[in-house]
């Protein structure tokens, strides 16, 4: 099967790209991912399964869980406002930065005395990447990193992209971000459904407008079949290029719960950055 839209940035047929599965996250794994040698990277049993369920029960009690401000019709709840939701609204942007430290501490304190899944990822990224890793700070202010997400039963997350540059509406720069990775650590899997879908396509914004059904999502009837259909397992870490179209199928007998953030890549000699 060939993609319906040619993508000059894809040097090879996406069907030949595997999901790379490993037991330990390494620098070479990340390099292979950003260079397009694999479509997704899965680190199996990245976080202990018993601890996943233990922390999941704690996190689900947080009062901060609510649906995304810009996606009220989608049954996905998150802890704290994300940068994506601030687009074009200075009040929301100020709220985002004001809440960033509090929410980082809230997640950390909820997981105490254990290392939170996101803090584990942050430490390992800093250790394995020769140039280190740090909090993203688009406006010279430290950003939020690490949200818990809960997928309500029978709701899907429609096909979409996550591209930081499209959420920056002022003159701030994303610092020539070459790749944006989505990092997801799964804490609880739904009994039925909840599969992650990934397409090989990385449409430009103009191409998105031609394929969109609303301001955020793609019309699935205009898309080819997805190249990846992955059923998450508790404890797994999955990373992929968030510029590729991706979606989550409806789940039942959940809720499906994960912790997530984005990882920014600017080159092998530049620090990685992370944010939510």
Structure description:
The protein is an alpha+beta fold and 276 residues long. The protein has a single domain, classed as Jelly Rolls, CATH 2.60.120.620. It has five helices and 16 strands. It has helices spanning 27-34, 49-59, 90-111, 117-128, 205-211; strands spanning 19-22, 40-43, 65-67, 76-79, 133-135, 147-151, 157-160, 179-188, 192-193, 196-198, 228-230, 237-241, 246-248, 251-252, 256-265, 272-275. The strands form three sheets. Strands 1, 2, 3, 4, 5, 6, 8, 12, 15 and 16 form a ten-stranded mixed β-sheet that branches. Strand 1 (19-22), helix 1 (27-34) and strand 2 (40-43) form a beta-alpha-beta unit. The protein starts with 18 loop residues before the first strand and ends with a strand. Residues 1-15 have low confidence and may be disordered.
């Amino acid at each position: 099967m060939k993609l319906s839209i040619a993508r000059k940035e894809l040097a090879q047929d996406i069907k030949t790209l595997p999901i790379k599965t490993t037991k330990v996250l390494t620098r070479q794994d990340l390099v292979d991912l950003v260079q397009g040698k694999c479509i997704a990277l899965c680190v199996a049993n990245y976080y202990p399964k018993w601890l996943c369920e233990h922390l999941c029960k704690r996190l689900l009690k947080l009062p901060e869980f609510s649906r995304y401000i810009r996606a009220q019709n989608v049954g996905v709840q998150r802890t704290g406002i994300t940068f994506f939701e601030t687009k074009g609204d200075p009040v929301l942007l100020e709220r985002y930065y004001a809440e960033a430290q509090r929410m980082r501490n809230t997640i950390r304190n909820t997981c105490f005395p254990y290392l939170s899944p996101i803090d584990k990822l942050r430490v390992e990224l800093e250790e394995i990447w020769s140039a280190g890793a740090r909090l993203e700070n688009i406006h010279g202010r430290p950003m939020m990193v690490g949200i818990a997400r809960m997928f309500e039963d029978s709701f899907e997350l429609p096909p979409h992209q996550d591209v930081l540059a499209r959420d920056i509406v002022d003159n701030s720069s994303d610092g020539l971000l070459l790749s944006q990775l989505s990092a997801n650590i799964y804490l609880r899997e739904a009994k039925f459904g909840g599969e992650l879908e990934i397409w090989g396509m990385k449409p430009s914004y103009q191409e998105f407008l031609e394929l969109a059904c609303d301001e955020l999502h793609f019309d699935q009837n205009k898309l080819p079949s997805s190249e990846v259909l992955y059923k998450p397992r508790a404890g797994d870490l999955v990373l992929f290029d968030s510029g590729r179209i991706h979606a989550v199928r409806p789940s039942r007998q959940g809720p499906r719960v994960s912790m997530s953030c984005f990882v920014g890549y600017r080159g092998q000699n530049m620090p990685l950055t992370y944010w939510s």
